[in-house]
């Protein structure tokens, strides 16, 4: 029996829910990793952690149409179910839930979950409605899978914070587990969208994380000398550096409080922040890359 | 031991959820009646049915601030916990969940459930945001109480349909049970807000349901002779009747498809409707009364 024989692939929300009820009745704990598929090592780390923590690991693969804007890459988003199933099996996954859009959004679908102010800045400002689409599908998946724990990577840090908030606000009984961003050896944050990059673009891409790390170091150095420091100048300077480093444009580059995601615009508010979140989105050709660093100052 | 000793009163969502997990683990089925308290016979009928169907009956009493508009009666809404607990005990209720607003909406609360087009007409048009507030609190209560069945009265028919849609759209694993409107002997739909009525107003109030019943009969009679029938004239005529019958104003009076809640504005679309919903909201002094009839033509 190969690993693939042990994995259960389901597409019906009702069947998935029934399976989970059965698992729960037999005393099992459910670890859940919601994904859009096209797995890389980052996804697999989440799955291994879910499996180790809970014993039962459920992964959803669903490219969720309602979190993409009309001009975004929903149709082009990379998909490879066969490879994903092999990788999931190698990570010890028990169930893959892979619904079709019609299974999730019937003809009368009309109720949505609306994220609040945590969703408004950063990627939310560039992608209106994106986080409402994410919250809606994650709420649905939570109700279908009924997980004890759900695992999210910190590469999508704003998404993680928005989902933690949603889970608390709507009283979902699930622990949201933060997991470190998985990176290539050269520091590039792993992403399914990295497959869009040409060889040339791929060689430029790691400079994004390098810049974020330099920004973190620089903020650490100036923390005792804030008066002479201009945060807007600092950000503008790194934007220019990124563009001269080969990125086509900078969608945003911002410093914020890591809990509230409230933007920090002057150096005096740096010290009041409970933690620091530096986040950016940059374009390399048509590809939009996001990355961040989260740290205590 | 009096009945009151057997009822458990809880205010903490976490404790409530734990109690329900315990009940579920011991194999019990949970019937749930969400309310704003100030019980009348209509509430008690829902409780008795929940108890009979499920064995365990949970009632929530929560005057939900986010479903009231700024000029509405949130502060004045009638409350009487002591009487409610006695009545609930007499109906066989096992748990009363009675949180404070702060238990439900902490300082960082910001995620909401947004109802769709079913919520836009009728009471939704007069009370912007009302059904989003209802859906948000009911989603929270479903996650806290984890009911098998949830019971709603048909007096708030639009609310019932909106919640059925929400439960399906967000994959809540709960059966929403429709229950007939409880009425006084003279036909007035029972409502906690009826306590606002003066003796004079109370004597006028039953004419609302009388008018709805007449409208139902009249639509039944004309169903074979639709061509000569003007639906807008029909509605205007009944609006005038209500006002000359003593009501101060008619907020709305409409005929719709009972499933889609799409308004029926001409007589030819009457025959295409899967069921008929005639609904109205009228003012008697400062009191807003709603009522409806739902039937097959």
Return residue spans of chain A where pLDDT drops below 50 for at least 5 consecutive residues: none
**Main interface: chain pair and counts:** A-B, 30 and 30 residues
Mean model confidence by pLDDT of chain A: 95
Assess the beta-strand content of chain A as a share of residues: 15-25%
Strand order, largest beta sheet of chain A: 1-4-3-2-6-7
> CATH architecture of the largest domain in chain A, please?
3-Layer(aba) Sandwich
The level-1 CATH class of the largest domain in chain A: Alpha Beta
Inertia-based shape of chain A: globular
Number of helices of chain A: 12
Number of beta-strand segments of chain A: 10
Distance between the termini of chain A: 52 Å
Give the helix/strand class of chain A: alpha/beta
Corresponding CATH superfamily of the largest domain in chain A = HUPs
User: Radius of gyration of chain A from the CA trace?
Assistant: 20 Å
Work out the count of structural domains of chain A: 2
Oligomer: homodimer
């Amino acid at each position: 029996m190969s690993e693939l024989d042990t994995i259960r692939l389901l597409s019906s929300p009702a069947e998935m829910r029934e399976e989970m009820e059965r698992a729960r009745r037999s005393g099992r704990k459910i670890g859940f990793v919601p994904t859009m598929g096209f797995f890389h090592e980052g996804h697999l780390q989440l799955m291994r952690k879910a499996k180790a923590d809970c014993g039962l690991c459920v992964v959803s693969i669903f490219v969720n149409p309602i979190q993409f804007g009309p001009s975004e890459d929903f149709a082009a988003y990379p998909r490879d179910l066969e490879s994903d199933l092999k990788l999931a099996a190698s990570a010890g996954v028990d169930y893959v839930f892979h619904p079709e859009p019609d299974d999730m959004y019937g003809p009368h679908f009309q109720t949505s979950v609306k994220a609040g102010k945590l969703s408004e800045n950063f990627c939310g400002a560039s992608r209106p409605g994106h986080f409402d689409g994410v919250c809606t599908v994650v709420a649905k998946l939570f109700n279908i899978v009924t997980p004890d724990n759900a695992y999210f990577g910190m590469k999508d840090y704003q998404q993680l914070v928005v989902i933690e908030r949603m889970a608390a606000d709507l009283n979902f009984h699930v622990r949201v587990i933060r997991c470190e961003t998985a990176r290539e050896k050269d520091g590039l944050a792993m992403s399914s969208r990295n497959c869009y990059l040409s060889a040339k673009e791929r060689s430029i891409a790691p400079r994004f994380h390098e810049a974020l790390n330099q920004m973190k170091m620089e903020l650490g150095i100036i923390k005792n000398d804030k008066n002479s420091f201009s945060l807007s100048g600092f950000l503008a300077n790194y934007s220019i550096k990124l563009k001269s480093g080969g990125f086509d444009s900078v969608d945003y580059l911002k410093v914020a409080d890591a809990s509230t995601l409230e933007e920090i615009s002057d150096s005096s508010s740096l010290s009041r922040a409970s933690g620091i979140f530096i986040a950016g989105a940059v374009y390399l050709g048509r590809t939009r890359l996001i990355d961040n660093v989260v740290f205590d100052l």
